[in-house]
Specification:
34% helix; alpha/beta; globular; 4-stranded parallel sheet
Length: 90
């Protein structure tokens, strides 16, 4: 089972990613992050997923222990969380 943290979970790309994840039994959502839109609807489909609206997602990413971080945040707003997966690989 591959654990996925989804940044930008409520946007267009995030919602499409959730559909792909739901269709694949080998994938599991472990974290859902949104910049300002509530994530309750998405969280209801993924019990046990940690959630966050707004703020810095780095602590949530550490707590959720994902195998993959999918950054679907638009533009410069998504840059802050992007280095996290790379630093975990080194």
């Amino acid at each position: 089972m591959t654990r996925i943290a989804l940044l930008g979970a409520t946007g267009s790309i995030g919602r499409q990613a959730l559909d792909v994840i739901a269709a694949n039994p080998d994938l599991e959502v472990c974290a859902l992050v949104s910049g300002s839109t509530p994530v309750e609807a998405a969280a209801a489909r993924h019990p046990g997923a940690l959630t966050q609206v707004g703020g810095d997602p780095r602590a949530l990413l550490e707590a959720s222990e994902p195998d993959v971080v999918l950054n679907a945040v638009v533009g410069f707003a998504g840059v802050g969380a992007s280095p996290r997966p790379f630093t975990r690989l080194s």
